[in-house]
Amino acid sequence: MADLLLPALALMLVFEGLLPFLSPGRWREVFLRATQLSDGQIRFVGLTSMLIGLALLLFLGD
After folding, report:
1. Residue 24: what pLDDT?
2. pTM of the entire structure?
3. What keywords tag this UniProt record (predicted)?
């Protein structure tokens, strides 16, 4: 399990760093807009992200 978890974490960090590296101004705008969302909206974005990730894992795991 750890042999898959650490590379997955590393890949996630690479993707997370792309937007701030390539376009810091745009990243700042997105971040500022995210701070204006309500808790419910942020939870919905998080839930949607988790469900898409789980669906991809299930799809790619077969």
Report:
1. 96
2. 0.71
3. Membrane, Transmembrane, Transmembrane helix
Compute the residue count for the chain.
62
Rounded to whole angstroms, the Cα distance separating 56 from 33 reads 27
For residue 39, the one-letter residue type is D
Residue range 52-60: mean pLDDT, rounded: 90
Contact 25, 17 (CB under 8 A): no
State CA 26 to chain mean position distance. Answer: 16
Which tens digit of pLDDT belongs to each residue from 4-28? 888 889 999 999 999 999 999 999 9
Q: Which residue has the tokens 């919905």?
A: 44
How many CB atoms within 10 Å of residue 19? 13
Q: How far apart are CA 3 and CA 12, in angstroms?
A: 15
Q: What gap in Å lies between CA 44 and CA 35, rounded to an integer?
A: 14
